[in-house]
Amino acid sequence: MPIRFEKVEHLYSDGSPVSFQALKGIDLDIEDGSMTAIIGHTGSGKSTLIQHINALLLPSSGKVTVQDYVISPTERPAKLKPLRQIAGLVFQFPEYQLFEETIEKDIIFGPMNFGVPEEKAKAAAKEALKAVGLDESYLERSPFDLSGGQKRRVAIAGILVMQPEILVLDEPTAGLDPQGATEMMELFQSLNRQGITVLVVTHDMNQVLHYCDHAVVMSEGKIVKKGTVAEIFAEPAYLNELSIQLPTMTQFIYELNQKGFQIDMSINQLDDLIAAIEAQMTSR
After folding, report:
1. Average pLDDT, the chain
2. pLDDT at 91
3. CA R_g for the chain
4. How far apart are CA 128 and CA 124, in angstroms?
C-alpha cells in the first residue's frame, strides 16, 4: 500500500478553548494505482485528511505511511520535504499555490527547488502547461491576471511538472466550465492509467461514477464507508442520510428499479444503460 492511515486523529488549535477535532481514529488504505474519490458533506474532514498525505499537516496522534515515509506527531517537517515531490497536492483554491510574478516562474519553482536545472525546468513547464490546455503564450503572463479556471489549470501544471507518483486533488474542477471539467478529469484518468495514484476530493458524484474506481465516504471526521464506486452507490438510502446525492445516471437507474426494472446499479455508461433498458423492455 502506498498510503496508509493508522488511528489518525487531528486537532486544530489543540489545547486552546477553540480546539476542534477534525479527524477521529482514521484507519484507511489507499490502493496503489487506484483513482479514489474522497466524498462527504462540507466539514466532514476531507481536506484535513488529504493534507496529511504530503505532511502539510501532522497528525495529533496515529501515523500516516506514504511509501517509505512515516508521518507522525513527532516528525520534523524538513525531513519530510522529499515526500512533497512524490505526493503532489492541488489545493481547492489555486490562489494558495500561485505567488510568482509570471506563470513560468510559478511552474518552475518546484522543480528548481529540488535541484532541476533552469532550462530543463522551463522545458518541463511548457509540457505541463500544454497538458492542462494552455499554450506557451501564458508563460510570461502574471498568474493574477487569469480567470479562476485558468488559475486552477496553472496550479495543476505546477504539480504535474514535478512528475509526482501520487496526485492529490481538492475539488480540481471548481471554477471550470463543463467542457474544461471534462478535459481535466480525462487528464487525471489518463495519468492514473499511466500508474499514478490519484485521490480526488469532490462534491460531483457524476465525476466519481465516470472516472473513479474506489471511494471513501467521510462524516464528522470519521470514515463511515469505503469500497469500490459500485459498492458505494449501491446504497442510495444510506448516502441520502449523509446528504450525498447519487450520480444522475445512478439515480435514474434507482428510480427505474423502484418501478419494477432490474438494472445493474453499477452501470456508468449511457450505451450500456440503453442496452439494459431495451433488453428488459423486450422481455416484458
Report:
1. 90
2. 85
3. 20
4. 6
